[in-house]
């Protein structure tokens, strides 16, 4: 009995002590332990972009050569390209497919103020042999003072583009006497966060970046120029908006609402159930709507419906589907229902947009 208790103490020590977990006879090595965990957590800041990729690659036995990231663990494949321009602007494109959640924690830093723009794309969840489409589009803008966690979608192919630059870098490209919302926002060191829908104009810039990622001779020009175009488009949108930028958002609220958006408002075949969401997040429907609106400017269902009608527009532009196929895929009751919703939002029928695309008259 005494020997058994001593053995239990040794095993307990091995399981909880990091050094022995890694080294004890090679049994509890770090990689195996990570595979046993439910999720992988990575801490970083906006000031150490390429250093973070180097650490990420080292942790997961991948490679990072200063521009290209490659990781393949068996439970996670992660591919990325990131380029630094003029020492203070980073533009990257990444593709992730992970079998378990990856949580990235962004910690504030006392150094230069950086602005980050993260642009998410669509993908597919895989569950029980079936494919369930999900919608992860959006433009997320925040400064390096904003602390938050983001849990990347798992069981899915997830693509995103990042643009990061210092405020000093941005000021080099703006007139000193320029009086704009974006300049005032970027110079504000208070933690802030802002969301914009991914419209076709920004998406076209992103698609140009993607199309040139493997073209060595010209990708630098496209990565840099299209990133600046995106910043310019965002500037125009901020000048037109009447909404206020979200400041001092509690990190847990931001994390929860990002999770709600990505995991529960992404399936357009079924409208979200607010009662179920209330139970899932442990708060009343009114509180859930209030916190969600404080970040995304709309209550949950209104936001969902807007995203859905914007997906109609996107599928007309970027796919060869018929209007009937789009209507069925997005779970409208029929074409007339989809047309009425679309016309109410855009001011014209989806058939008009499709005719312009089919006849090459789309600008």
TrEMBL record:
Superkingdom as given in the UniProt entry: Bacteria
Single GO MF annotation: sequence-specific DNA binding
Coiled-coil annotated residue ranges, if any: none
InterPro entries per UniProt: Homeodomain-like_sf, HTH_AraC, PchR_regulatory_protein
Domain HTH araC/xylS-type as annotated: residue spans: 258-356
Entry-linked PROSITE patterns: HTH_ARAC_FAMILY_2
Keyword list, A-Z: Transcription, Transcription regulation
PANTHER family listed in its UniProt record: REGULATORY PROTEIN PCHR
Name of the protein in its database record: Helix-turn-helix domain-containing protein
